[in-house]
Design brief:
single chain; 307 residues; mainly alpha; Rhopdopsin 7-helix transmembrane proteins; GPCR_Rhodpsn_7TM; G protein-coupled receptor activity; transmembrane helix
């Protein structure tokens, strides 16, 4: 991760006591996420692409989310190898740049797709007769394309090693101290646009969806199923934000403000390492959302299991 740091006084990390901690935690976590995420997201994409699978806007958003997650987990063996080799990158400069770029593309595509899913489900509960536009298939495909283009373009500066924060390709996934202030400025923009606004949107959706459900009388069976899936989507998304994205964005900001790894802020640095692992875990937790909230997904999985 381009925001994972080094000692301010010595870029070789010999004074950064969290280095040994990273070299244990990251490989174990990344390889576990790689296994679970590869299986879960490959299976999810397979189900979404089945001819018998119901084509809905919700499933289109989830399919794009699964593609984003699969793209990210495919980079994790390279990341694990880096830390297993004692923070030494052996795969060349180009692949190094792709590692950091892919991580942030996945993270913010995931955040935006989860936010759009919550808005779609929220609209189905609160404005059932006005939701045709957000549930329209064409509108869903256009929204997915806009999210991909925006995130790919906004993350493109990370393809520059000067912006990404490393000077020596052999220390690819570690931040050089001289880049901290530049990344802190970038972080301010990303924090608002990439996390705070989506997170606030999901909280608003959750509050108003709950209020609408409490006000409604006992609904018909079909309507009750719709409401259950809508509420499941919003609740699971909120949990994913609280578990995976909130700790990471808080600790990344604190870490950059403190200015890197030193004995004085060792605890913050270790906490930031754990928060990055939690953020990466989102890639293997999203299939849980598909199972409980996607249209016809649960039935299709059971059918495949019986086969």
């Amino acid at each position: 991760c381009s925001f994972t740091g080094t000692s301010q006084s010595d870029y070789s990390l010999r004074n950064c006591h969290a280095d040994a901690f990273k070299q244990v935690i990251y490989p174990i976590t990344y390889l576990l996420i790689f296994f679970l995420g590869s299986v879960g997201n490959s299976l999810s994409i397979y189900v979404f692409l089945q001819p018998s699978q119901r084509k809905t806007s919700v499933n289109i958003y989830m399919q794009n989310l699964a593609v984003s997650d699969l793209m990210f987990v495919s980079t994790l063996p390279f990341r694990a190898t880096y830390y297993l080799l004692g923070s030494h990158w052996v795969f060349g400069d180009i692949l190094c740049r792709i590692m950091t770029y892919t991580m942030y593309v996945n993270m913010y595509c995931s955040i935006y797709f989860l936010t759009v899913l919550s808005v779609v489900r929220f609209t189905a509960i609160v404005y059932p007769f006005k939701s045709w536009k957000v549930t329209n298939m064409k509108y869903a495909k256009i929204t997915c394309a806009v999210i991909w283009v925006f995130v790919l373009a906004a993350s493109s500066p990370l393809l520059s090693k000067v912006i990404a924060g490393y000077e020596n390709p052999e220390k690819c996934l570690d931040l050089h101290p001289s880049s901290t202030q530049r990344l802190l400025m970038m972080n301010s923009f990303v924090l608002v646009v990439g996390f705070i606004l989506p997170f606030c949107t999901i909280i608003v959706c959750y509050i108003f969806a709950i209020k609408a459900l409490l006000k409604s009388r006992t609904p018909q069976r079909k309507k009750a199923v719709c409401h259950k899936k809508a509420l499941s989507t919003i609740i699971i998304t909120l949990i994913l934000f609280l578990l995976c994205f909130l700790p990471y964005h808080i600790l990344r900001t604190v870490y950059l403000v403190l200015g890197g790894c030193s004995p004085a802020n060792l605890f913050v640095h270790k906490a930031q390492v754990v928060s990055l692992c939690l953020a990466a875990t989102n890639s293997c937790l999203d299939p849980v959302l598909y199972y409980f909230a996607a249209e016809n997904f649960k039935a299709r999985i059971r059918s495949l299991y019986r086969r």
